[in-house]
Design a protein that fits this description.
365 residues; mainly alpha; two-stranded antiparallel sheet
């Protein structure tokens, strides 16, 4: 997938209006925002596990989308953005919302009924591998290199290590693991679809993403009552976990992601992908007391190394961000966004092979 990147270091980028600000009105240093994004995406898997303790997986996903859409609605109101127009655009956004939000969010939530959050977080890191494999078939312009093919093979070797293939996958729940891997596969399917249909849209990224999340929320609002019933009592901690998952891990994360991509470029911003499984594993072990065998961290390192190799690119010309009417900057229409565990912006199309496919949202879980 051909990719345009943000401006070079020699060309300063004006502050992004959606980035968190200090008291002086300046955006927080990008490294702080990078660390914040890594933390909230890494903790998303813990939040899902806790949410499942009081609600059905579809309810967890619906709540997540509802809170995330609420955050974006507030951001759109503040910036006086409108929702996209055009029946065709809304049709494409409905498909994007299904593959980038409704389906993977639900699959990850269901998978964590039977597998630890640490394994779900590591499975999420396979999205760049799936993305590259799909791009070789679906995107004729995305030509493989020896390094990228080697990365693909290395990455899937890491997956087999995580799953303990030499032990016959003993002790793993096959259905839960399969759902987590399918969730990771869903992201690049959505990224490729978005690239083919919405990459040239004149609508703002915030507008498209708001519409995408809104439609994904509607999809879950239809499905959830058909397969679940209201819980007997309201559990406060699971509800707070769902609120954090949606408001922080989906809504706020997407806004922070846009600011990072506009300021430091997609190549640097996408590095957040490689911290997510590390934080997810640390959170699962430290907070939830999940058991960790040697093959899990070793395999995770191999997966991340393979994913990094699949992102190797020949040097390309860079495109400067386009000015927005409000004085901010808008990243190029077709770009790479960092891979979210579960979130991906409809307008920010990652390379078909990487964390958002190159791998937004928003990622990624």
């Amino acid at each position: 997938m051909s990719t345009a990147t943000a401006s070079s270091p020699a060309s300063p980028v004006p502050p992004n209006p959606s980035a968190p600000s200090t008291r002086l009105g300046r955006p927080l240093p990008w490294r702080i925002r990078f660390a914040f994004l890594s933390l909230i995406w890494g903790f998303s898997f813990l939040f899902m596990k806790v949410g499942n303790q009081g609600f059905a997986p579809f309810q967890v996903t619906f709540g997540r989308l509802l809170f995330g859409t609420g955050v974006l609605a507030v951001a759109m109101a503040v910036k006086r953005e409108r929702l996209p127009r055009g029946v065709r655009t809304w049709g494409h956004l409905a498909v994007a919302g299904f593959f980038l939000n409704a389906l993977p969010f639900s699959l990850f939530a269901y998978s964590e009924l039977t597998i630890p959050s640490t394994l779900a977080g590591i499975c999420n890191a396979t999205s760049p591998l799936w993305g590259m494999a799909l791009s070789l078939v679906a995107l004729s312009e995305d030509r493989p290199t020896r390094v990228r093919v080697a990365g693909l093979g290395l990455g899937f070797l890491g997956v087999l290590t995580v799953l303990g293939a030499w032990q016959g996958f003993h002790g793993l729940d096959a259905s839960g693991t399969a759902m987590a891997l399918l969730a990771s596969l869903s992201y690049p399917v959505g990224w490729i679809y978005v690239r083919r249909t919405l990459a040239g849209s004149s609508e703002s990224h915030l507008s498209l993403t708001g519409g995408q999340l809104l439609l994904a929320t509607v999809q879950l609002a239809v499905v959830t009552p058909l397969f679940t019933s209201l819980p007997g009592h309201l559990s406060v901690l699971p509800l707070l976990a769902i609120a954090a998952l949606g408001a922080l891990g989906t809504g706020v994360a997407m806004l922070v992601q846009y600011g990072l991509v506009a300021e430091v470029g997609p190549t640097t911003a996408q590095m957040v992908t490689y911290f997510v499984p590390i934080i997810a594993t640390a959170a699962g072990v430290a907070v939830l007391g999940e058991h960790l065998t040697w093959s899990t961290p070793v395999g995770a390192v191999v997966v991340l190394a393979g994913a990094a190799l699949t992102q190797a690119r020949r040097p390309t010309n860079r495109t400067r961000p386009q000015p927005e009417p409000d004085g901010g900057t808008r990243p190029p229409a077709v770009m790479e966004a960092p891979e979210a565990p579960e979130v991906a912006a409809a307008a920010e199309v990652p390379e078909a092979a990487g964390p958002e496919a190159r791998t937004g949202q928003a990622a990624r879980a």
